[in-house]
Amino acid sequence: MRATIKMIAERAGVSIGTVDRVLHDRPYVKEEVRRRVLEVMEELDYQPNRMASALATSGLTRQFAIIQPTWESYVGEAMAAGVTKFRQDRRDYNLTVTVHPYHQGRMEDCLRLLDQAAEKAQGIALCAADCPQIRRKLEMLAERRVPVVTFNSDIAGGRRMCFVGENAHHAGRVAGEIAAKFLRPGDRVLLVYADHGYSGHKGRADGFLERMEERGFSRADCRVAETHDDYDETLAAVTAALAEEPDLKYIYMANRSVPACMEALRRSGRMGQVRVLAHDSGPETEAFLREGLLDFVIDQNLAYQSRKALELLFDAVVEHRDPERDSFYPESPILTAENC
């Protein structure tokens, strides 16, 4: 038999009105009472009626905030598509979703946006660097009972509710396995990623180097460049590597500045002589694949990440359901010229 609010009230020893206040996160409920009611809901496997919940909260606007880097081109478009899909799917609910972008290198802007969101939002989807300042903000938000879902790049061990995004370490290992098939021990490799503070890219880099070592390659043969997803920095780093390493055989682009890498290869006259492996499908990377300039692209479903992060916040804030696991990973298909 399906659990009802009346059954929950009787089991918890409270009034139906108290259960309703807990269900819709309204004030004037003691914390111990709130916990007892939520425990009973879990024991009875209570599933709120979606339309009833929508009607019950129609006078209260739920506000969700997305704090993310200023993503350009296909990345920003894909993330925006995920937000749009969430809004369409929840159009019967009184919800607002506000996207707050910041420049990836300006951590102070991200921290300021978190402070602003904490004053108004009932839930936050966050993509940020893993650093002590962000971890302290997560502690503060947890104390205020504002759920945070990290997406695209995790802050593992921080006080976030869960993570949605690529299993970066596994994706890096896949990249290492692919690269190893085209190389011999001693061949020179260039690895380009954003920076060690961005856990998504660090995970890729660590996984790549780990798998290459397992396949008999030395880390000393891999030149590493941090270019912060910046076109000019990537162009300079790849250009320098090509000039200083005439025997360079392979470039692993763990960040999104693939066009800069291709421009450096073109200027050096070594296009087609150095193999390149990249991440994330978009119009430019797909064109490079079809032209034979890229060997493979390891993709991830970007739209899924923003949409799923908001869905998990909705479940927590509106339907009072905790996520069933700590991390939600999209598939990571390997694209070639034939299937991009």
UniProtKB/TrEMBL annotation:
PROSITE patterns: HTH_LACI_2. InterPro entries: HTH_LacI (IPR000843), Lambda_DNA-bd_dom_sf (IPR010982), Peripla_BP_I (IPR028082), SBP_2_dom (IPR025997). The keyword DNA-binding applies. The keyword ATP-binding does not apply. Residues 3-57 form the HTH lacI-type domain. GO terms for molecular function: DNA-binding transcription factor activity; transcription cis-regulatory region binding. Keywords: DNA-binding, Transcription, Transcription regulation. Pfam families: LacI (PF00356), Peripla_BP_4 (PF13407). It comes from the Bacteria. This is Substrate-binding domain-containing protein.
